[in-house]
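Most newcomers find our protein records easier to grasp once they have seen one. Sequence and backbone structure share a record, each on its own labelled line. To make this concrete, we reproduce a full record directly below:
***
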Amino acid sequence: MTTGNEDWHVLAGLLPSDWQHLARTTGAVRRLRGFDSLDAVLRTLLMHVGHGWSLRETVVQAKLAGIAEVSDVALMDRLRLAEPWLRAMCEQLWKANGVRLEPLHQRPVRVVDATTVKEPGKTGSQWRIHYSLRLPGLECDHFELTPTRGKSTGERLGRFAFQPGELVLADAGYSHPAGIAAVVASRAEVCVRLNPLSLPLQSTHQRPLGLRAKLRALKVGKIGDWPAEVVCGTQVVAGRVCTVRKSEQAIARAQRRIDQRKIRGVSGGTEESREYACYVMVFTTLATAEASGVEILECYRQRWQIELTFQRLKSIIQLGHVPKQVDASSRAWLYAKLLVALLAERLARVGSTISPWGYYLVRDSADSEPVARV
């Protein structure tokens, strides 16, 4: 067995146990045509997205490796058909990694995010990918490519079309008055990591909120839950700020990140920002009667768990040939990137506990030979 085949054998052990069955039942693979096995199909797809290779380069490398002999057009068709298969594997791996993908009180939940991708080469194009995933099924219902610079290219909630009644989970990059107003205008609810510097708040009746004074009075383990309003032009959006003080270890890590950004010249690290870094603050439009402060923070913790995978996804997604059409091939490309991120996360999680020979030995039945399973 070559090193490449051996590495794939171990990597396949990280996949859901029924990943091959899913390939058939989702309709992703009806005929192999150019591939020797389902392993070869998935290996080639992951070569494409994992290495950031173009379709043409991928088929050349797959042929040289003896994995497949297909055209670049055929590989694109494979990627497009693989969307439900890749999504199903991502959903199972996320749950296997301990992340709950459940709605809040039966309310539909939607996670929005964005990242950048630079195509290979000194003059490779740079794109910003805007996408949203619905929980718990991980359906990608928005995939948009924009340049990284220029008007209307940044992270903003206003670019998404929201459905009435759904809950939108977003990180601090979307903490802006116009975005909050856009969600409310769609009769949806929002739960966003609060950046007080970009999302100014006031108390009811247009009085100063006094957020810093409230935070200083908050003890570790206690939940702050205060009414607050967001003003966007003539529109006033009523909501709440739910917050908790971080542990001393978490505060120290946050302060180190601020110091590192200051050294790199990314941020000045003001006294105000250093004080806010001691807390996790969430702004939400959900009423107290529907969700307590603890439930709001738990809801954002779910978003944060997903964000950990997103961070790994962003490090993987930053280089590669992204499909230029907003269709199934683009969504499948995103799911394949997400699958690579989840596999890397699972490998890191089990890496400290695997056996000396590098994988677990399990038996499919009492009489069968041991097979590799990570």
